[in-house]
Amino acid sequence: MTGFPTHLLSMDDLDAGSIAQVLRVTDSFAEVGRRANPKVPTLRGRTVATLFFEDSTRTRMSFETAAKRMSADVLSFAAGSSSVKKGESLRDTIETIQAIGMDAVIIRHSSSGVPARVAQWVDNCAVVNAGDGWHQHPTQALLDLYTVRQSLGGGDEGTDAFQGLRVTIVGDIRHSRVARSQITAYAALGAEVTLVAPATLLPPSLEGWPVASVSHDLDRVLDRTDVISLLRLQSERGSGDYVPTMREYSTGYALTARRALQLPPDAIILHPGPMVRGVEIASEVAELPSARITDQVGNGVAVRMAVLFLLLGQGTLESERHD
Amino acid sequence: MTDRTDPPDLVVRGGTVVDATGSRRADVRVSGGAVVELGEGLDVPAGTTVLDAGGCVVAPGLVDLHTHLREPGREEAETVATGTRAAALGGFTAVVAMPNTDPPLDSAESVRNVYALADGALAQVAVAGAITVGRAGERLAPMAELAALGVRLFTDDGDGVQSAGLMRRALQYATGLGVVLGQHCEDRSLAGGGTMHEGEWSSRLGLPGQPAEAEEVMVARDIALARATGGRVHFLHLSTAGSLDLVRRARAEGVPVTAEVAPHHFTLTDDCTAGYDPVFKVNPPLRPRGDVDAVKRALADGTADAIATDHAPHAPELKDLPFDQAPPGMLGLQTALALAVTELDLPLDRILALLSWQPAAIAKLDPAHGGTQGGPVAQGAPANLVVVDPTATWTVDPTALASRSRNTPYAGRTLTGRVRHTVLAGEPVVIDAEAQR
């Protein structure tokens, strides 16, 4: 078994072995989640802080639920209500948190690289990137992998099902931390990743990216797609300037009901949320059985439990004891 | 001038004198602020200070075309006193102070203020005036009024003059004043909020980038304007292969343009930003290897006329901000010469040309323009000298730098080439790498 890294800052931190390990441990925690009392003592006495400098109710709730189900003490720093608003520097905030004593900090920030910087400043504290700027959102990619594996019905240990899997990622890849994490994650497991976007919404350079192909024509790749992941057009990050109108974007790149019919029958539809129905995905498509969007949200808690467990180590996994 | 007793006579002994006229073994006697005698084995009367230059090169003091002294307005980052101490320790006897202070140097009053602050400083401070009022790029600053105070270089540095029409008018106006316009080439519509070079690394790191073309289109534009108006353009801190090619071709045609490059653009590549440390954030940004090689080539073939530091101090708390929010800029005065000696495959006399007499001529601080900088080291010449040990090695320690700030990207690097002594107007302001006041 490969050693799990100290921090989870980017999907680049995890090799195929570590990803498989996360998925395997997630299976155990998913089982915990199905119990009447979904709580285990795994992280009792450990303290986990969520430090969200950018609003995200969903991701924050998912992480906090994960930590609480493992009996960790959870401290929640909201940038809007903490001393950050009073002008305290990022570094001072981290030093304060470090002085209080944390086993893990989960950070979301609108600036790329903040979790990586924080990891350079802390001692004996795991840093989890919950999304930084356009850079990375590794737990989102992991829960996508878990959802896909669940849908494909692979064996418990298996990541074999990803070998040669045709994954199509559509939308604002340029400004998407989710896409950056997904591409690395799928490619690490042997999937073939195709990017579909207008040229203005692709990153300026794809040099070194493990991408099999790039297309500007969604209709031509649909019948060669096993998993399609749709990204939100990030209008709050200015991506509205990258296409003439939302309508024109939708015409070319939205997964409409008509387009969904061109997908192979067992293809899986994913969306990291929040969805803008009618822009990147038609409302009726989001409701199809092949759309696993709700599963993604549900799996998020178990995946994040697995990540915290592997980072903080030491605890014993209850289900593993019975194996 | 502040009332000071005259410095004692000096003999710089045992070195090789190198200047624009060539190189020869000679001791140098300095008295009353001037070089009074050159020759081997000069006698040393009682009361004369001897500066040992054994194994060293004695050259005209270095001249930096691009220094941010931060005063007034950002005294927590640097002052005229701390910045010129760093300059002296780096071998510079003159620096051109950039006008992006607060308030900016766009009026006679603000220029006089900096001259007053520089009285008694450890290096001569020449002021670069702003081209436009408030550096806002909207209307011309009173350039004639500033030129009358001795300002010879104008720039809105920190920003480029965005309007081609206004730049053309500024160049036309400048031809009547005999001054040079320095351009920070950055087309804002292309650079946008770019915080690093746009390319492989910005894409991977998820940071907004500025493309090479943001610099190059303004270089191309200003070459066309210089050609049309006859106005003198000096390109600041050029950083891309494309920009340097444009300058190379323009010069071959005889267009009146000059160019400087900064040490970080021939020593560091854009992958340095992989750890998101804002100490590597600078504007223009660090570029890929191909551009770094092009900068070195431009220094070797004469396309670049000068190495200029773009010394840009920033307080530590600002460099602890997230990468995209931290201000761009790096310290440069104390590392420039050693970086050139260490990293450039050029003989020392060429490096000294790039750091001393060529920039002195661009800033019109040389004897040909009535100034005292850039040598040659000859009898009767003003004694602005640097003594360099070209083989000494040293390790960059940010806490040991004279600047008030600590933002050097070279912490821990071992460099070859050390400034041993600096003589400013006959006064030994640095002896054995120690500032004397």
CATH topology of the largest domain in chain B: TIM Barrel
What is the CATH architecture term of the largest domain in chain B?
Answer: Alpha-Beta Barrel
Tell me, what's the shape of chain A? globular
- Which CATH class of the largest domain in chain B? Alpha Beta
CATH class label of the largest domain in chain A: Alpha Beta
Strand content of chain B: 15-25%
Q: How are the strands of the largest sheet of chain A arranged? A: 7-6-5-8-9
Describe the global form of chain B: globular
Specify the structural class of chain A.
alpha/beta
Mean pLDDT level of chain B: 97
Biggest β-sheet strands, sense, barrel of chain B: 8 strands, parallel
**What is the average of the pLDDT values of chain A?**
90
Largest interface, with counts of residues having CB < 8 Å to the other chain, equals: A-B, 25 and 22 residues
The CATH topology annotation of the largest domain in chain A reads as Rossmann fold
Q: Please give the domain count of chain B.
A: 2
Tell me the number of helical segments of chain A per DSSP (H or I, 4 or more residues long): 12
Report on the biggest sheet of chain A.
5 strands, parallel
Task: Report strand % of chain A.
Answer: 5-15%
- Percent helix of chain A, as a range, is 25-40%
Q: What percent of residues of chain B adopt helix (DSSP H or I)?
A: 25-40%
CATH architecture call of the largest domain in chain A: 3-Layer(aba) Sandwich
